[in-house]
Amino acid sequence: MALNKKVTLSLQKQQMSMRLSILLFLMGLLSYLPLCAQPKNEIRATWLTTLGGLDFPSSKASSAAGIQRQKQELCKILDELKQAHINTVLFQTRLRGDVIYPSAIETFAESLTGHEGRNPGYDLLEFATAECHKRGMELHAWIVTIPVGNNRQVKLLGKKSVVKKYPQLCKQYKGSWYLDPGQLGTADYLARLVREIVSRYDIDGIHLDYIRYPERAQQFPDNATFRKYGKGQNLEQWRRDNITRIVRRIYTEVKTLKPWVKVSSSPVGKYADTQRYSSHGWNAYETVYQDAQAWLKEGIHDALFPMMYFPNNHFYPFALDWKENKSNRWVVPGLGIYFLHPKEKNWDAAEIIRQIHFIRKSGLDGEAYFRNRFLLENTKGILSTLKNRFYQTPSFVPPMTWADSIAPSVPDTPVLHETKEGIRLSWSPSTDNSTLPVHYRVYASNFYPVDITQAEHIVETRIDTTCYTTSSSQLYWAVTAVDRYGNESQPLYFKTISEESLPIWNHLPDLPAGGILIIYDATGTELFRTSDIHSQQIQNLAPGFYRIKILTENGQSIATGSIVR
Questions:
Q1: How far apart are CA 271 and CA 321, in angstroms?
Q2: Are strands 176-179 and 147-150 parallel, antiparallel or unpaired?
Q3: 206-244 pLDDT, tens per residue?
Q4: How high is the pLDDT of residue 15?
Q5: DSSP string covering 199-229, please?
Q6: 55's torsion region: left (phi>0), alpha (psi -120 to 50) or beta?
Q7: Residue 227, exposed/middle/buried by CB under 10 A (0-12, 13-18, 19+)?
Q8: N or C: which terminal CB in the chain sees fewer CB atoms within 10 Å?
Q9: Domains in the chain: how many in total?
Q10: pTM recorded for the entire structure
């Protein structure tokens, strides 16, 4: 039996090594080839940090003008992310025992106004959520969980600090303060904070950061807590169980309130040592007591964003380990693009490019970038590379099928007509089994029916109304309904232009080169077509009402209207 086990382990080790070698070989080849098909479903996320204004805000909301500057700055950031086809913003909502929204539990963060505890005069989380949704992006409230501030921050917060309000829950360790995961009240406190956010805001996710013990955690001062609650357990496993208990409590809290809200975290990028590769003393399981793969297996997480800020073989085998243990949930590697900066580790951009290739080829669920400033500043050309190679088209967050797999009904009653503003699509509302509101996606192409499986046909990623106007000249359109879980209906196709609301032109428009003008009578019968708006046929038209259509040289309809002579 022992021999068979050794043989089995050896074979498994060889198979994993072979898979890794093949993937690395393919990835090397692909780095020299242009990309073809773009994925329709892929998580593309960025961590937007509010701590110290590292990514946002750069100015303080100390006046009405300051509030407006902050709002404009955030809108500019989100516009740039939309242009790059980013679809998920991990927005730092709780920093270090303080928050960016009006809370009954913790006070306002210093970065908003320059003063701890000062109200900025508007609800940043509400504003950010609405603006993300306008641009078809998800907002996940990023919560820093266990740390509650260094000595300076705790002093600035004074009586409002978690340390002063709940001293029994807090431990000081190496110049900073932390919630003690072993205290039963810690899970209660964090669940209460999460409940406040989820119940009040239309967010798409709760993202847990630093849901672990601190670095060099072996010396964490929780001896008294362990004696009280350890009950003869191994210290290391007891600590892992403490973190898992907190995660389970938060997950249950979120799903009880809004089951469509995603729960994720950002564990240390290496789960544990693999059979062939050492984590060199820095991993989630053994070093900081995060059993993140168990969270996926138990179903108390929807996604992981492991902080895989490593190059070469410190990245690839550990990414493959996450993939092979994702338990049909999402794993989205966090890429350390800040290391591209010359003042950091000055990585070559090729390292990140290889990692993205590997992520896609290995079957992981997308990419996340730390941090947003390094992304939008186009460090080492990373933003340009994403736009030109990897993110040429929009992409959607995949459906959360383990929570709900029933798609909404197909929208109905398609109406397509031309107005002065362009082509206007309208349809009747869809319904969903969850009774929650749905939103809509718009697709277009020059071929009928529109193939909605192809990302290049995506026009709009999220519309919250039942109409859409565009100046695009594409011939055919399709609309789908999407529920809060990401399930997408079958498409409603738009094939012909309705002439119920044709604009009335005062004169015949100019024709494009090679264009054709078609004249119809009031019944819709074609009278003639011409390439000359001054032709004798037009001059001989009797007084009356006529319908007009203009085609390009290749037969594409670009305008429809009417004229009275």
A1: 8
A2: antiparallel
A3: 999 999 999 989 999 999 999 999 988 999 999 999 999
A4: 55
A5: HHS--SEEEEES-SPPSSGGG-S-HHHHHHH
A6: alpha
A7: exposed
A8: N
A9: 3
A10: 0.84
Contacts of 525 (CB under 8 A, 6+ apart): none
CA-to-CA separations, 254 to 205, 207, 263, 264, 265, in angstroms, rounded: 9, 11, 8, 11, 14
> Domain range holding 453?
412-494
d(CA 414, CA 478): 9
Task: Return the structure tokens found at 199.
Answer: 């119940």
- The answer to whether the CB of 148 falls within 8 A of the CB of 179 is yes
155 and 294 co-located in one domain: yes
Instruction: Please enumerate in sequence order all residues whose Cβ is within 8 A of that of 473, keeping only pairs 6 or more positions apart, or say none.
Output: 556, 558
Q: How many whole angstroms separate alpha carbon 204 and alpha carbon 207?
A: 10
Enter the DSSP assignment of 447. Answer: S
Query: Which helix H or strand E contains 21, and what residues bound it?
Result: helix 2-30
Residues 6 or more apart in contact with residue 45 via CB below 8 angstroms: 86, 87, 88, 89, 90, 140, 305, 332, 366, 367, 368, 369
Q: CA-CA distance, 119 to 312, in Å (whole number)?
A: 45
User: In this structure, are residues 183 and 213 in contact, taking their beta carbons and an 8 Å threshold?
Assistant: no
Return the amino acid letter for 497: I
Task: Tell me: do 178 and 82 sit in the same domain.
Answer: yes
Burial 108-140 (b: 16+ CB within 10 A, else e): bbbbbbeebbbebebbbbebbbebbbebbbbbb
Q: Parallel, antiparallel, or unpaired: how do β-strands 107-108 and 43-48 relate?
A: unpaired
> Which stretches does DSSP call E strand in 326-473?
330-331, 334-335, 366-369, 412-419, 422-428, 439-445, 458-463, 467-470
182 and 69 in one domain?
A: yes
Neighbours of 106 (CB within 10 A): 23
**Measured distance between the N- and C-terminal CA atoms of the chain, rounded to whole angstroms:** 96
Contact 440, 481 (CB under 8 A): yes
Q: 203 with 295, same domain?
A: yes
pLDDT tens profile 236-270:
999 999 999 999 999 999 999 999 999 999 999 99
